[in-house]
C-alpha cells in the first residue's frame, strides 16, 4: 500500500480523535493520588470487569486524576452501563459546577441492564462531574462524586482515558474496590462553533499540587517542593516553576507574565512548538514580605476560543517578625484588641438591657453588661431571674414573679391548700377542695361521711357492723322495731330506768327489753330494835331497801336496810322524809325540802305525852 495513503488514513483518524475530545477539556482539581484497588475474593475485581469489556487498561497504573469535564462548546455525551458489583442500588447521573443539588439522573442500576447506553447534552462553558446516589437495604442514601471535595476529601472514583472515551470506576461507602458501578463516557458530537484548544497551564503535574505553580527554597532540589496551600514560607530566596502545554498542531506564540501580588517577577514572549510544552523557573525573595501574598501566572495569546485555563495563582504566607506592641499609642498592633490612647482603662457605664465595651490599660477589650432579664442574675429592677425568658415557670419573661393557681389533686401542697391527697374525693380526710375534713369515728353514734350507719358501738350482728356498714337484718338504734328486736328507742337504748320504789323496764343496746324488780319490806323490824326515833317505824321507810334477812332470838325475822336515797348527799328527794333527814336534823342541819323545826316540835310533844302517860299509870 502506498505510504501516502497510509499517512492520509492516520491523519483522518487523528483529526477525528482530536475533534471528538477537543470540545471538552478535563481538570484534575489538584488530585495527584492514584488509589490502590482492593479486591474482595468473592467479587470480580475492576481489572476483571475491564478485561471482560475488552479493555487493555491496567487498573492499577493507567489511572488519570480527572475530576470534572469542561465544555469548550456545546457537546453531546454518551454513557454506557458496563457493570455493577454491589448489593446496594445506584442512581447514576451528572451534576453542574460542583453542586450535587443539580444532579440529573441517567439510569437506575436496579432497572437498567448492563450494556444500555444513555446520551445527554451540555452547553459551552458548562462544568460537569459524575456521581452515584446510593441506597442501602434500609433505604439510607449517600452521594459519591468524581470531585474529591464533595466526598469530604476522599477519592470515590478512578478514571481511565481510553482513546476518545473515559472509563469511570465508582466506589460507594464500602471496600474501595472501585467496581461498585462501572461506566464509559464518550463525546459523540460537538457544535459547529467549536474551536481547538490552544495553550493551557498544566495544573496537575506533581510539584504544583493542583495550583499550576510549584514552589521550593532556592537550592533545595527536587526534595524541597512545598505542598502546603497556602505555602508557609520563611524569610529567604525561593523558586517557582510552571508548565504550559500547546494543544494545537502548530506553533503557538504566547506572552507570559509572572507576578508577586502586583509586582512583575518575569514577563516575556515565547513560541511553543506544535504539540509540545514550555516550562520555566523564576526566582523571588521574601525578606521584605509579611503576611499573605499571591503568586500568579498569566499566559496570553490570540486564541478566539479561550478555555479559561490560561491563568493560575497560589497564595503564600510569610511569618512576620514579632515586635513588642506599645499599648497607649493609639495604634492597633499585633496582640492588641484595642488602643484608645489616654482613654485606656476608663470604665464605661451600661444601663439595664444594654452592654458597653471599654479598652483596658493592657489594650484588651472588655464588655460590661448592664443586666438582662434571663441572665440568671437578679438586678434591682427585677423581682426574679431564673436564667430564662419563659413565662409560666414562676418567673415571667419580664422577670416578674408569678404565683400559679393551686391545682387540687396533684399531690403537691400549694399555697391556698390545707391538704392535697392526690384525688378530688370527699370523706377521706382531705376534701375535693383540698380542705381538711373533721375526723370521723365509727361507734360515736353519728353517721359521718363514708358511714352507712352508726349505732353507738362497734359490735357486729346488730345491724351495723364494726366498720359502720349496714349488716343484713334489723338495725338496732334506728327507732324502728324490726324482726328480732323487742324494742328500739334509738339513742336512748342502753339507759337503765330508776326502780327505787317500783319495778321498771328499759331497752338494751341490742334492742332487748330488760326488767328491773323493786324489793319490798314485809313489816319486820329493820333495825333490830323497836326504837322508831331514827326511822319513825319498824319497817323500811321510803328509799330504804332491805337486802338481807337475819334470825333473832325472839324468832322475829329482821333484815338490814341500806340507804338508796343517797344519804351521803346534802339533799333528800322532794316530799320524802328519810332516816338521813332525821340524822341531819339531830345534827342541827337544815333538811332541804322538809320543815325541820316542825318535826322537832312534833317529836318533843310525843315524848312529853309518853312521859305523862307513864307517870299516871305508875
Low-confidence stretches are: 1-21, 519-594
Through-space gap between termini: 212 Å
CATH topology of the largest domain: Jelly Rolls
In DSSP terms (H or I, runs of 4 or more residues), the helix count works out at 4
User: CATH superfamily of the largest domain, please?
Assistant: Calcium-mediated lectin
> What is the count of structural domains?
5
- Strand element count: 27
Determine the structural class based on helices, strands and strand pairing: mainly beta
Describe the protein's architecture and organization.
With 618 residues, this protein is mainly β. The protein has five domains: 7-190, Jelly Rolls (Sandwich), CATH 2.60.120; 199-318, Immunoglobulin-like (Sandwich), CATH 2.60.40; 413-439, no CATH class; 441-518, no CATH class; 544-614, no CATH class. Helices cover 9% and strands 29% of the residues. Strands 1, 3, 5, 6, 8 and 9 form a six-stranded antiparallel β-sheet that branches. A six-stranded antiparallel β-sheet has the order 2-10-11-12-4-7. A five-stranded mixed β-sheet has the order 15-21-20-17-18, with no helix packed on it. β26 (544-551) and β27 (557-563) form a beta hairpin. The radius of gyration is 63 Å and the shape is elongated. The chain starts with a helix and ends with a helix. 22% of the residues are buried. Mean pLDDT is 78; it is low at 1-21 and 519-594.
Helices, strands, pairings?
Elements: H1 3-22, E1 24-27, H2 46-52, E2 63-64, E3 68-71, E4 75-84, E5 89-96, E6 99-108, E7 117-122, E8 127-135, E9 141-145, E10 157-162, E11 165-170, E12 181-190, E13 199-201, E14 214-217, E15 231-233, E16 237-246, E17 252-260, E18 263-272, E19 277-285, E20 291-300, E21 311-318, E22 355-359, E23 365-369, E24 504-507, E25 513-516, E26 544-551, E27 557-563, H3 579-586, H4 596-617
Parallel strand pairs: 15-21
Antiparallel strand pairs: 1-3, 2-10, 3-8, 4-7, 4-12, 5-6, 5-8, 8-9, 10-11, 11-12, 13-16, 14-16, 16-19, 17-18, 17-20, 20-21, 22-23, 24-25, 26-27
